[in-house]
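DUF5590 domain-containing protein
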Amino acid sequence: MKQWITFILGFLSFLAVAIIILILFLGNKPYSETEELAIDRAKSEQLIEEVERAYVYTNTAASVTVLGTNGKGELVAVFVPTGEGKLQAIPLEDKITAQQAREIALAEMDVKEILHTRLGMEKDGPVWEIAFLNEKDSLNYVYLSAGDGTWWKRILNL
């Protein structure tokens, strides 16, 4: 009887781990496919040659930010809207970096843990979105202009 209980508990544990892995894989698949389509589109329009990173940026409308280098070796960000729409490519040589944006947020906000830093396009131009938890474990989003590092928007204590 003891062996049956051990077998059943072991099987249920294995089944739970398998289900969790399956859910994580299937849950991430739409994002991965969207990112791959955006990378292919940016490359096909010859806006980017080598891709360093790509991620989905969502505010009022979803888009994919593709970071990398163009044919001239310059660091660029290509903003690819989901569906149809015009791609925008901006050089990042004269913009603030993700590290500089995090440092600005850390200096002025009560930050416990930074969750992510993403570059996205807004109506006023490119912005860095920094999501973090404060000391009270509240979720916060701050947006800094990528051009000069000025505060664009703050969404605090969610």
